[in-house]
Amino acid sequence: MSTGWSWFVIILTLLAIAGCAWLLMWARTARLGEPGPREALAGDYDGIQELNMPLPRWWLGLFVGSILFSLVYLVLYPGLGNFPGLLGWTSSGQYQQSAEEWQRRFGPIYARFAGMPIDELARNPAAVAIGARLFANNCSTCHGADARGGTGYPNLTDGVWKWGGTPDHIEKSIVEGRDGMMPPFIAAVGEENVGAVVAYVQSLSGKQVDPSLKAAGEAKYKAVCIACHGMDGKGNIALGAPDLTDDDWLYGGSAAAIEEGLRKGRHGIMPAHRDLLGIERAHLIAAYVFSLSHQDGAPAGQQVSANQR
């Protein structure tokens, strides 16, 4: 803040406090400690005469006390332009102090688990418990307290993964984030072919559809959709393209939901948490997430669906 703006803030702040003190003294009807006059006003409601009474002394004392407190506060803490306050307190300094205290208390715990493989941590009750608390504080807003997600937010407990379900894939998703996008395909598919493509996509997961629509939709699917979802519809974890054959749908598997995806596209973003969590905490969350679909403690890769997505 420039010197000019600093003086502007100082003068304005002190004038505001002085104005409050003056208004308080001007508006009172008696000096502190003395009874005030019982001046009758014009109002008379149901036989009750309205009187002009002074503020109670305790109430007036609170106002005076708040003004004195504000002056003491501004002397001790920053609040008057560039004046730092006699105590030298700053929000950044307090944050740094808290961060150092946190590192002193919890750093050794996270460091102890940092070098352990995620699938090993997933079988360690202490590591899983810490990861669960970190997940609740940082991930449950989107994925839910039970990690079962919702429409547009993947279920992390079922072993079905858009971007791969190995420990490395999960940790990368947390640390670097994911950006999955399906553009609108209505122009490429054609308005007249939307219903047929929807029917064919539904048939990939075993749903009963009109055979004629399925045949027409298959031709259009192979011309437009296989680049991401593959010839067999099993998707591509490198692109985050979902497997269409397993009846697990991030946005819903109804005809209306699939058609909406074709018409409007889908865009799901998992933000990167590297800066928010740090590598060590992300490592523990990855272990917790991995444990959710590996409850029997099987080594990495033995329980992950063949159609990882």
Structure characterization notes:
The protein has 309 residues and is mainly alpha-helical. The chain folds into 3 domains: 3-76, no CATH class; 105-177 and 271-292, Cytochrome Bc1 Complex, Chain D, domain 2; 180-269, Cytochrome c-like domain (Cytochrome Bc1 Complex, Chain D, domain 2). Helix content is 52%, strand content 7%. It is built from 14 helices and 4 strands. The chain has helices at residues 3-27, 57-76, 91-114, 118-121, 125-138, 140-143, 167-176, 186-189, 194-204, 211-224, 226-229, 255-264, 274-277, 279-292, and strands spanning 39-45, 48-52, 178-182, 266-270. Strands 1-2 form a two-stranded antiparallel ribbon. Strands 3-4 form a two-stranded antiparallel sheet. The chain is elongated, with a radius of gyration of 33 Å. The two termini are 51 Å apart. 22% of the residues are buried.
Which tags fit this structure?
14 helices; 309 residues; 3 domains; disordered C terminus; Cytochrome Bc1 Complex, Chain D, domain 2; single chain; two-stranded antiparallel ribbon; mainly alpha; 52% helix
How do the strands and helices of this protein lay out in sequence?
Elements: H1 3-27, E1 39-45, E2 48-52, H2 57-76, H3 91-114, H4 118-121, H5 125-138, H6 140-143, H7 167-176, E3 178-182, H8 186-189, H9 194-204, H10 211-224, H11 226-229, H12 255-264, E4 266-270, H13 274-277, H14 279-292
Antiparallel strand pairs: 1-2, 3-4
Helix pairs in contact: 1-2, 3-14, 5-14, 7-14, 9-10, 9-12
